[in-house]
Amino acid sequence: MFRALIITVLALTLGACATVQKLPAAGDVHALLISIRDEDEITFDSLVDRKALNREIQARLMAEAGRRGDSQVSAFAALLAPTLAEITGEVLVRPRVFKSVAEYYGYSPATQIPSPLAITQALRQLPDGRICAIAKKDGPCLLNFTKAQDGHWKLSGFEGDLSMLRIKR
Where are the domains of the chain? Predict the structure, then answer.
């Protein structure tokens, strides 16, 4: 009986540690969701690592060009990818565009945004120290967050289908 009690206490303690580690990230995710809902560009920009997102977009464009197998298309894509990534980042990394992603997670404009403590349940700690947002318990990561030098967790990656990033009217 005592052994079962100790195991239960240890399990709860470890679970609490994971939540405590994710809580600061959840606060920044909460603020990001509010900035998306309110189309608050200033707050949104403060919680996004544009350089990281642009690098990811560029890599994904290159990978897509490589999958097509056409060497001329790949060479052309390699030439244009940095410029396309920069333009794409400027156009797509906006609160209005990320409303589609928020809706994927179930946050419509009419939905109340949960507290940071509730958001911790939708966050997964990754081995490299990043945090990712998931829609289902064992679901894939869609948004990645990295702890910045200023202590805030910033949106640094988008693993979803790029077609999700569209301007909401």
Answer: 2-48+93-164
- Residue 114 has phi, psi (to 5 degrees) of -70, 165
Does residue 47 register a pLDDT over 70?
Answer: yes
How many Cβ atoms from other residues are within 10 Å of residue 14's Cβ?
Answer: 10
How much of the chain exceeds pLDDT 90, in percent?
36
For range 23-40, the mean pLDDT: 93
N-term to C-term CA, the chain: 60
CB 100 within 8 A of CB 166: yes
Distances in Å between the alpha carbon of 50 and those of 142, 146, 156?
16, 12, 7
- The single-letter code of the amino acid at 77 is A
Query: Coil, strand or helix: which one is 107?
Result: coil
Q: Are 143 and 101 in contact (CB under 8 A)?
A: yes
State the Cα–Cα distance between residues 167 and 45, nearest whole angstrom. Answer: 17
